[in-house]
TrEMBL record:
<dbReference type="InterPro" id="IPR015590">
    <property type="entry name" value="Aldehyde_DH_dom"/>
</dbReference>
<dbReference type="Pfam" id="PF00171">
    <property type="entry name" value="Aldedh"/>
</dbReference>
<dbReference type="InterPro" id="IPR016161">
    <property type="entry name" value="Ald_DH/histidinol_DH"/>
</dbReference>
<comment type="similarity">
    <text>Belongs to the aldehyde dehydrogenase family.</text>
</comment>
<feature type="domain" description="Aldehyde dehydrogenase">
    <location>
        <begin position="15"/>
        <end position="116"/>
    </location>
</feature>
<protein>
    <recommendedName>
        <fullName>NADP-dependent glyceraldehyde-3-phosphate dehydrogenase</fullName>
        <ecNumber>1.2.1.9</ecNumber>
    </recommendedName>
</protein>
<dbReference type="InterPro" id="IPR016162">
    <property type="entry name" value="Ald_DH_N"/>
</dbReference>
<keyword id="KW-0560">Oxidoreductase</keyword>
<feature type="active site">
    <location>
        <position position="225"/>
    </location>
</feature>
<feature type="domain" description="Aldehyde dehydrogenase">
    <location>
        <begin position="299"/>
        <end position="488"/>
    </location>
</feature>
<dbReference type="InterPro" id="IPR029510">
    <property type="entry name" value="Ald_DH_CS_GLU"/>
</dbReference>
<feature type="domain" description="Aldehyde dehydrogenase">
    <location>
        <begin position="119"/>
        <end position="252"/>
    </location>
</feature>
<dbReference type="GO" id="GO:0008886">
    <property type="term" value="F:glyceraldehyde-3-phosphate dehydrogenase (NADP+) (non-phosphorylating) activity"/>
</dbReference>
<dbReference type="GO" id="GO:0008911">
    <property type="term" value="F:lactaldehyde dehydrogenase (NAD+) activity"/>
</dbReference>
<dbReference type="InterPro" id="IPR016163">
    <property type="entry name" value="Ald_DH_C"/>
</dbReference>
<dbReference type="InterPro" id="IPR051020">
    <property type="entry name" value="ALDH-related_metabolic_enz"/>
</dbReference>
Length: 494
């Protein structure tokens, strides 16, 4: 708990006139790790003013120059992998290796953004704690390449990691005002920012707050990703080991990279992709990187984690046994040790997860492991025989707790998936591709993965949720399109 980190405005690092700070609690130690400035509304006004002015000349900056600066920022970001990853470990308890991967993945994402558009003006970017860097640059880079300026409001947990990332853009030499970053209390600057007349577009990733923002924001384009209750439907003919691997340790497909940017083992894999026009072929060979992500990765603190397993009764016992074997092998402990299961982000989050577990207990769910918690650290838990009357059947724990609902047929699975308020992603495990396509068509979610767990990446892919899961689509091209506006000039010759 040393000095308070400065905020970034008009190309300079500044101390807030409020004289106040916001503490950032280390989820592992539960002690104050960092402090950031508690910016005032006047300071937000100043940031908006400079963003507005800077955007005008930024939009006139040639595309090649904007792309050059983004490539430079991407390289600097990757060079700063170590200190930024260390912040992620301390602020959001991200396991050390995942933290480093997030920084590199973010550098790659910044580099992918090199397309032309007609800017909207000032884009307000609000990323979540689970990817304070990656889900910040996934908003910043498309906005900038399209000629917008950016005002970033990072999550409190993850704010210092985000400030380090902004410093990389600062070092790359972006003109002053093109990027700003304000930190502070939601109660003081939250609504003030999202309802600010200077904002021309909001890109938000997070929870219910997004619904409140969308009701207040007014007539501006919104890009919202607000969580999910991603269902995993497992049919009788499924490759059970594959399903178990995906529930416990997902497999994520990444696009072929010119320069392998991390040390994850790679296997070549034939895959059908639906990448966006600029970067990924529609069908072809992509590299499949094995990553320990699944529900366990980030302790289920991913919008795309499998959040409910809907398995056919006839194979449920075998599936549960196999998942339990995997759970028994997971390491639980501090992020510095790169454990599979690390503390969840805040005490209130741990309390919420516990409330879902206790409700399930009261209503008769089968506990496959003993429920165990120390501080913010919750041991992985599989809950079998979950019934619709239990909260965990519908609510998003954002923690290492996975409910299993036994179903009699695929229709029951589809029905449960579609009865959810969420509609982010879902997945199906079956060897029958025709059946998989029919189920996929019936599932009301933004994406369906067949024989793989849900995932946002590769970062080029369009990423969208229905219902309370969001508005619009993210991804490199989708975001650039969303952050630009069609402009028509009709010439009527005399
Ligand atoms: O939770 C945020 C969501 O975007 C997840 O991303 O890459 O873990 O699938 P990813």
């Amino acid at each position: 708990a040393g000095d308070t980190f400065k905020y970034y405005s008009e190309g300079e690092w500044k101390v807030s006139a409020s004289g106040k700070s916001v503490p950032i609690i280390n989820p592992t130690t539960r002690k104050t790790q960092f402090k950031v400035q508690a910016c005032t509304q006047e300071e937000v006004n100043k940031v908006m003013e400079s963003a507005k002015i800077a955007q005008k000349s930024w939009a006139k900056t040639p595309l090649w120059k904007r792309a050059e600066l983004l490539h430079k920022a991407a390289a600097i970001l990757k060079d700063h992998k170590k200190p930024i990853a260390e912040c992620l470990v301390k602020e959001v308890a991200k396991p050390a290796k995942d933290a480093a991967t997030e920084v590199v993945r973010s550098g790659d994402l910044v580099s992918y953004c090199a397309e032309e558009g007609i800017p909207l003006g000032v884009v307000l970017a609000i990323p979540p704690f689970n990817y304070p860097i990656n889900l910040a640059v996934s908003k910043i880079a498309p906005a900038l390449i399209a000629g917008n300026s950016i005002v970033l409001k990072p999550p409190t947990q993850g704010a210092v990691s985000a400030l380090h990332m902004v410093h990389c853009f600062h070092l790359a030499g972006f003109p002053k005002g093109v990027i700003s970053c304000v930190t502070g209390k939601g109660s003081e600057i939250g609504d003030f920012l999202t309802m600010h007349p200077g904002v021309n577009c909001i890109s938000f990733t997070g929870g219910d707050t997004g619904i409140a923002i969308s009701k207040k924001a007014g007539m501006i384009p919104l890009q919202m990703e607000l969580g999910g209750k991603d269902a995993c439907i497992i049919l009788e003919d499924a490759d059970l080991d594959l399903a178990v691997a995906n529930i416990s340790h997902e497999l994520t497909i990444y696009p072929p990279l010119k320069t392998p940017s991390n040390d994850l083992p790679v296997e070549k894999q034939q895959s059908i992709g639906y990448g966006e026009k600029s970067s990924v072929p529609s069908i072809g060979t992509v590299e499949k990187r094995r990553m320990p992500i699944g529900t366990r990765r980030r302790c289920g603190q991913r919008c795309t984690a499998v959040k409910v397993v809907l398995v056919m009764e006839s194979i449920a016992d075998t599936l549960v046994k196999k998942v339990n074997e995997k759970i028994g092998k997971l390491s639980v402990g501090p992020p510095e040790n790169d454990c599979d299961i690390t503390p969840v982000v805040t005490e209130s989050s741990a309390n919420f997860i516990e409330s879902l577990v206790m409700d399930a207990k009261k209503k008769g769910a089968t506990f496959c492991q003993e429920y165990k918690r120390e501080g913010n650290l919750i041991w992985p838990l599989l809950l079998d025989n979950v019934k619709p009357e239990m909260r965990i059947a519908w609510e998003e724990p954002f923690g290492p707790v996975l409910p299993v609902i036994r179903i009699g047929n695929a229709e029951e699975g589809i029905h449960h998936c579609n009865a959810s308020n969420f509609g982010l992603q879902g997945c199906i495990f079956t060897k029958d591709i025709n059946k998989a396509m029919l189920i996929s068509d019936a599932m009301e979610t933004g994406t369906v993965q067949i024989n793989s767990a849900p995932a946002r990446g590769p970062d080029h892919f369009p990423f969208q949720g229905l219902k309370d899961s969001g508005i619009g689509s993210q991804g490199v091209t989708s975001s650039i399109n969303m952050m630009t506006k069609m402009k028509s000039t009709v010439i009527n010759l005399p």
